[in-house]
TrEMBL record, chains A, B:
NADP(+) binds at G10, F11, G12, T13, V14, G15. Residues 149-310 form the Homoserine dehydrogenase catalytic domain. It comes from the Archaea. The active site is at K216. Keywords: Amino-acid biosynthesis, Methionine biosynthesis, NADP, Oxidoreductase, Threonine biosynthesis. This is Homoserine dehydrogenase. It comes from Thermococcus chitonophagus. Residues 10-141 form the Aspartate/homoserine dehydrogenase NAD-binding domain.
């Protein structure tokens, strides 16, 4: 049995779902996960505490600094790594600048597990290099399609394949708006409905203008080709008029990514609805592979993070 | 760069496609594969030879013992391991009794990669145990859905999930017959057509009576639950009268497997045709996950074997 100490950074929906899944799976395939610290914007709880209690306080009071029974520290991200010295840093925040924290972690031989897209999309080469030097690992299953394991599939399987093309629907908020438009609403009406239901990101442009899908496409390009794309294109859904069978589709091929609305054939596996994402992966030997699953939600995302923690604990190699 | 020596056991369609893929990928993710020996029913070629030349001789003369330029050995399987001393034994034969060879390999710390179903279906517990003792590994991606990575998905991902149910179409020959019946043929006519096109196994009962799909379901049960099923059911397609939307479906849940013809809904992802296989995996957090891809063919199967060789070379952990 192997015990690993994890620091959870960010304690929103995903972080809290992760704490649930960890407590439901005290030991999995010989790995025991000990939550050593939890950090939100208000501070860090560290040491001997009950993660489910911290979750409850967070849900009731909105911040973990409201915890009465435990000391709450005000670490800077760098101090968090150096003081707490976890085995694994788990970033389930949406902090754009988290790359600098991963750098510190990897240099200290702390593996990084993350569901946070920009740091991977922008700095994967640097992170791989640091991980290689320190024999730590970087795992990021839930950055694309949440816990539906497209990263594991591309990164650890298909090792003899040339990936010719990936076509994927990776953003459920635009699917929501487009399917509402299919049933007769205008873009504006559908947009307002999505907003009122909490379907959109805080900055709705990230969904509507394809920024979220673009980060994801970039990450897929990294794992498929080991390099960043040279040519990129990003068109959101604001200009869609006839939404019939249209989805916001990311296309990835060697050197190129594009995100734009595409009209799909009636029987296309990409014609998903609800929170489902789907990807078609075309390779030289396998032809067409389809993976479809939920692409968001607290437990769905936390599930991928959980698998990554176990992989980090078992020192899973990262071929790509 | 890490070089691994592999012994290929069996040199039919899959073995020959594997030799092609290896020669097209001389080095992948830091792993170089050296084909150290190739064995067919006629003998073993070992040492310094050109695998593509052996392939050509096999295709022209039907046996590798026809090779003029190289010595051909008559090793017993056990001697093969002890004499050649490969790093990895690659079984792409259809030898039912291969388990005894795997035992010898694992005891000698030789990892096993196989596309051969019965030894895994019948002896997975014993093989895992031996692998654990010797720190070698057992990899078997291509036993189910060929190179479409359902084994990698279940074995190395979804580690925090409870697998509630798997529903899958895992045998393309029965799909061929059933789709022919859907377009008006009788079972007998469709069966004869399949036979004449070479779609069926040498012993057609393995397809028609669900034996092939049953082995695969059993392997899925092993990787989903770590134990063999207690309750099993197997019904072939001989008695199907109305084939409309019917496929031979394997169902796997904790303690139970069944293989039988099922009428599917019009829009079911399991309603595949041609060589496609498909699986729906239901879990507690992810809901429904769909994986669809080709389930057979030389290169498709060899691709999964290739990935497994790389995993064995990198000492990939096997959580399940």
């Amino acid at each position: 049995m192997k015990e690993v100490k994890v620091s959870i950074f960010g304690f929103g929906t995903v972080g809290r779902a992760l704490v649930e899944i960890v407590s439901e799976n005290p030991e999995v395939v010989g790995v025991k996960i000990k939550v050593e610290s939890i950090t939100d914007r208000s501070g860090t709880v560290w040491g001997d505490f009950d993660p489910l209690e911290v979750k409850e306080v967070k849900e009731n009071a909105g911040r973990i600094s409201a915890l009465g029974d435990y000391e709450v520290y005000s670490f800077k991200p760098k101090e968090l790594i150096e003081e707490v010295k976890p085995d694994i840093l788990v970033d389930v925040s949406s902090w754009d600048g988290a790359f600098s924290m991963y750098e510190v972690a990897l240099k200290e031989r702390v593996s990084v597990v993350t569901s946070n897209k920009p740091p991977i999309a922008e700095h994967y080469d640097k992170l791989r290099e640091l991980a290689e030097e320190s024999k730590a690992g970087v795992y990021f299953e839930s950055t694309v399609m949440a816990g539906t394991p497209i990263i594991g599939l591309l990164r650890e399987n298909l090792l003899g394949e040339n990936i010719e093309e990936i076509l994927a629907v990776l953003n459920a908020s635009t699917t929501f708006i487009l399917t509402r438009m299919e049933s007769g609403k205008s873009f504006e009406e559908a947009f307002e409905e999505a907003k009122s239901l909490g379907v959109l990101e805080e900055d709705p442009s990230k969904d509507i203008d394809g920024i979220d899908a673009f980060y994801k496409a970039k990450i897929l390009h990294w794992v498929a080709y080991g390099e960043p794309p040279e040519k990129t294109e990003r068109v959101g859904i604001r200009e869609v008029e006839d939404a019939k069978n249209v989805r916001l589709v990311a296309r990835v091929s060697k050197g190129e990514i594009s995100v734009k609305p595409r009209k799909l054939e009636e029987n296309s596996p990409l014609l998903v609805s609800g929170v489902y994402n789907a990807a078609i992966i075309r390779t030289n030997n396998l032809g067409e592979l389809v993976l479809k699953g939920k692409g968001g939600g607290g437990r769905v995302t936390a599930s991928g993070v959980f698998t990554d923690i176990v992989k980090a604990a078992l020192k899973f190699p990262s071929p790509r």
